[in-house]
Amino acid sequence: ARVCVGFRSSCKHDVSLSLELTTTGGNTDDSVYSGITESLTLDSCEDECVAITIHNNDSLKKDKESYFDVNLSLNGKPDGVKLSPAKSKVTIIDSTTVNLTLNIMEESVVEGSNVTLCLDVVSDLECPIEFPFEYFLSTSGQNPSECGKCDFENRTDFIVNFNKCDKQNCVEIKTKTDDTLESNEQFDVTLTRHTDDPRIQPPEIIKNFTITDELTAVVYVNISPETNTVSEDKGVLKICAEMTGCCPVQPEFSIPFEITSGTAVYGKDFRVETDRIAFKSCQNMSCIDVEIIDGESLEKTEWFKIEFMMATRTARSEHSWIDRIQLQGQVQNITIEDTR
């Protein structure tokens, strides 16, 4: 900062003034500027100037603007000389900026684990920010559970608190475990509110944390009643697939089947309106009806085979949850007896 002293009225060469210029206080200290006490002699029409060193301090102080006072005093009491002003304020504007980054400790976690999010101050200084501040984060799901259970801690007030000189602070977001086999799920973390100080540059929004599920499920295909032999006049044979593993399955899926061999003739001795057993989201059991056709002629005992295949996705999915469904009872031999 350059401070100059000179005559405001017309210059008189025969006047010599001895002055003292000092710096004091304000709302800052000598870490921001170098204070001085300087003796000046004003004996010409030229201004007398002094330089005050302002330090380039990369750390942020709480006050965006700091100031100090420059005081001017006369040595002696010369007649007709007035100091105006005798005190001036010098303002220092801190234009330093500090960037923050949001770092993910785990981009993918198994449900039941915690996701750790850390805000880091990008600086090599030991104390980059010399005052406390805070940030608020919120979470939101991209595909929340359809079974009515929360997959993660859904809050709008995750507070990341920074004390003076902190360079990193973290929060943990809990993911929740349940008894439902699910596809991989994602949730977003959004910066909702932060310090109003424009010198602290917030990070970009981070998205797409993945919660993985390691549960497996077993689907067992069975005939009701328990015997695979049915009378021709029974009318309907019910075939059910039941979840006997850990849990229901959240995504929709189906178990296709084929009639592969046998002496019974489709359309004459039996018929079925579908080619798969379909499960809706979180359904524990699903059944199909096989219509047994009662012919008018006396027939020998006949049979056919239904062969079920591994589950397939009803909806297109990029995740491998379908591979965690096991199938038991894939082959069912069904006998039709004519009791006439």
From TrEMBL:
Top-rank lineage group of the source organism: Eukaryota
Coiled-coil segments on the chain, per record: none
InterPro entries the UniProt entry points to: CalX-like_sf (IPR038081), Calx_beta (IPR003644)
GO cellular component terms, semicolon-separated: membrane
Record key words, sorted: Calcium, Repeat, Signal
One family name in Pfam for this protein: Calx-beta
GO biological process: cell communication
Keyword Cell membrane: no
Location of the Calx-beta domain: 2-95, 156-214, 218-338
Name this polypeptide is given: Calx-beta domain-containing protein
